[in-house]
Amino acid sequence: MSQHRHPGASGSAGAVPALPDLPEATVARLPEYLRALHHLAEIGHETVSSEGLAGAAGVNSAKLRKDLSHLGSYGTRGVGYDVGLLVDQIEFVLGLTQRRAVALVGVGNLGHALAGYDGFASRGFRIAALLDADRARVGEIINGLVVRHVDDLADVAAEEQISIGVIATPAPAAQAVADQLVAVGVTSILNFAPCVLSVPEGVDVRKVDLAIELQILSFHEHRKASLTALPATGGSALTALPGGLPAPDTQEAIGT
């Protein structure tokens, strides 16, 4: 991670600079900007235009400029953005200036793959602990870490100063694991289990459901197929939905 001083940091020991109040959509795009900036830095770019960074991140330049203006970064006319400075600003806002310790609970097929993923370290995270309820897996070594029993979670959280928990268990076990994570003070959870978790106020949960993402892609495939099947005179290829309901107007459906 960058070793530059945090933008706006005070010289007073222990001072914590105020963070901007960012829209959720902007927060969701900042990691994409950071990924693109790291790539630009790796290939030798010291500056980048808003158009160039927007293209690398897959957004339009107007949206990018608005997002970065929330950070107080406006670039320089005719020059663009300083890549190193913008990396520092985004890493600071995302809290990546310290490598956060992560506990991964559930080392089945998905958990095993996540535990072996080397990309976390370069993004500001350290898989500090692997845990599972299956005692047959306890003691297994994955990517240099020994799997511990989930009953050891309280000790692990204290030893490693766990700040984020990742749940990669089957759905029936996920809520109990979430309760255990909350009980040991974890307030940020990434949930790969296909279920909705109930957590107290102040605990943030991000859900990753690969099946849902595939279903959304299936919709787009279905939609593209229906559009190519439209009669030459226009109109909808679908005259009714299952159950006899009339199909929505194509243009109206696209715009919603």
TrEMBL record:
Biological process per Gene Ontology, one example term: negative regulation of DNA-templated transcription
GO molecular function: DNA binding; DNA-binding transcription factor activity
Domain of life from the UniProt record: Bacteria
Keyword Membrane carried by entry: no
Subcellular location: Cytoplasm
SUPFAM superfamilies reported for this sequence: NAD(P)-binding Rossmann-fold domains, Winged helix' DNA-binding domain
Keyword ATP-binding (UniProt): no
DNA-binding region per Swiss-Prot/TrEMBL record: 32-71
Residues of the CoA-binding domain: 95-196
Pfam (any one): Put_DNA-bind_N
Main location per the UniProt record: cytoplasm
Binding annotation for NAD(+): 106-111
One of the record's GO cellular component terms: cytoplasm
PANTHER family for this protein: REDOX-SENSING TRANSCRIPTIONAL REPRESSOR REX, REDOX-SENSING TRANSCRIPTIONAL REPRESSOR REX 1
Subunit comment: Homodimer.
NCBIfam families documented for this protein: PRK05472.1-3, PRK05472.2-1, PRK05472.2-2, PRK05472.2-3, PRK05472.2-4, PRK05472.2-5
HAMAP family xref list: Rex
Family: Belongs to the transcriptional regulatory Rex family.
Listed name of the protein: Redox-sensing transcriptional repressor Rex
Organism: Micromonospora halophytica
Lineage: Bacteria, Bacillati, Actinomycetota, Actinomycetes, Micromonosporales
Encoding gene (name): rex
